[in-house]
């Protein structure tokens, strides 16, 4: 029997190395900025930076409050919203400076009745502008939020693997429900126990008109069109399994944090069609960092909110922290190599 066959196309993987310059890195003469503060049983899941007031804003897992923390560690009760359902938590936060608004994801965990909403507050009066109920089904879990230049808010659903949109007048709808999100969960990157069932999580808006969204269980990053919700998977040199939050610096680099692993620094040269991890910064996993934000002077901060402890329910903690994390490689290396796998079909 002949073993020859007609010429047929077959996939050929070609490795292309792309080099790009980071440019002058930051000068690290000063010590990293560390803020330790006290707030009884706050257990914050997320933080945001208010560039006008020059302070951090933090939600609370156990209380219907948002706290403000100065760079010196002075804590102020920013607002309390007791009209929210009992058991509601403030999760993801986003500041909308042009409209002086604070956007806060509200979610109720078991055993409380399911509740998913986006609360919007005036940053100056601290009064609630509206509360947008997010159309939900059983198992849906509102998690993080980002805001675009027009004031539209985008909220991730970690249970249902889709994204809601809330307009400036408070109208809420399902914005992006891509098959790519669920396809990725069918092939998880590894057996991460903590994040095995947690889907779309951290989200950031990029000024070019798209969103970057991380998926905790698979470590995938998606680029989502902020107009029509079309999603594309970003081709990375490694999966960011356990990724909880993402923030984008002014130079375009993304910082992604995992509470159980590290802080990844990721760069792209083609508007996030592909990207590469160029550094991994050590974190204090015992303090369980769940959020990352870009603060003053483009500094990257993580939140040590001890959320794993807070979820247990029988703990009583006073102290929490916000810490600046910096790359040792930035400013030391002239370049970063990106290895991109491109599938090409050829005939032989």
Write the layout of secondary structure elements.
Layout: E1 10-21, E2 34-38, E3 47-50, E4 55-58, E5 65-69, E6 75-80, E7 88-96, E8 101-108, E9 115-122, E10 128-133, E11 142-147, E12 153-157, E13 162-166, E14 172-176, H1 179-185, E15 200-206, E16 210-215, E17 221-225, E18 231-233, E19 245-248, E20 254-257, E21 262-267, E22 276-282, E23 289-294, E24 300-304, H2 307-312, E25 319-324, E26 335-346
Antiparallel strand pairs: 1-26, 2-25, 3-4, 4-5, 5-6, 7-8, 8-9, 9-10, 11-12, 12-13, 13-14, 15-16, 16-17, 17-18, 19-20, 20-21, 21-22, 23-24, 24-25
GO cellular component, one term: endoplasmic reticulum
Keywords: Signal
Task: Summarize the structure in words.
- With 348 residues, the protein is mainly beta.
- The chain has one domain: Neuraminidase, CATH 2.120.10.
- Helix content is 4%, strand content 46%.
- It is built from 2 helices and 26 strands.
- The chain has a 4-stranded antiparallel sheet with strand order 2-25-24-23, with no helix packed on it.
- A hairpin with a 4-residue loop joins strand 20 (254-257) and strand 21 (262-267).
- The protein is globular and about 45 Å long.
- Residues 1-28 and 334-348 have low confidence and may be disordered.
């Amino acid at each position: 029997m002949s073993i020859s066959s007609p010429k047929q196309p077959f996939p050929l993987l070609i490795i292309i190395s792309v080099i790009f310059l980071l440019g002058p890195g930051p000068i690290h003469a000063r010590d990293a900025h560390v803020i330790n503060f006290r707030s009884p049983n706050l257990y914050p899941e997320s933080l945001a930076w208010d560039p006008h007031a020059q302070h951090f804003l933090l939600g609370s897992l156990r209380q219907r409050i948002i706290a403000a923390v100065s760079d010196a560690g002075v804590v102020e009760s920013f607002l309390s919203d007791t009209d929210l359902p009992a058991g509601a938590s403030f999760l993801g936060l986003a500041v909308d400076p042009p409209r002086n608004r604070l956007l806060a994801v509200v979610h109720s965990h078991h055993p409380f009745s399911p509740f998913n909403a986006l609360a919007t507050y005036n940053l100056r009066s601290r009064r609630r502008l509206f509360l947008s109920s997010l159309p939900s089904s059983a198992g849906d879990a509102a998690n993080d939020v980002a805001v675009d230049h027009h004031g539209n808010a985008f909220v991730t659903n970690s249970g249902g693997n889709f994204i809601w949109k809330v307009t400036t007048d408070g109208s809420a709808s399902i914005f992006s429900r891509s098959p790519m999100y669920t396809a990725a969960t069918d092939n998880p990157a590894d057996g991460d126990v903590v994040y095995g069932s947690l889907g779309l999580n951290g989200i950031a808006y990029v000024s070019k008109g798209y969103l970057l969204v991380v998926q905790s269980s698979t470590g995938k990053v998606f680029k989502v069109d902020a107009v029509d919700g079309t999603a594309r998977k970003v081709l990375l040199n490694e999966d960011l399994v356990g990724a909880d939050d993402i923030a984008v610096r002014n130079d375009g680099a993304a910082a992604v944090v995992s509470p159980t692993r590290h802080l990844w620094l990721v760069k792209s040269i083609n508007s996030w069609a592909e990207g590469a991890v160029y550094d991994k910064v050590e974190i204090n996993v015992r303090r369980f960092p769940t959020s990352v934000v870009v603060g003053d002077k483009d500094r990257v901060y993580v939140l040590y909110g001890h959320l794993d402890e807070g979820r247990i329910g029988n703990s009583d903690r006073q102290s929490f922290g916000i810490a600046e994390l910096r790359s040792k490689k930035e400013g030391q290396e002239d370049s970063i190599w990106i290895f991109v796998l491109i599938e090409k079909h050829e005939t032989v």
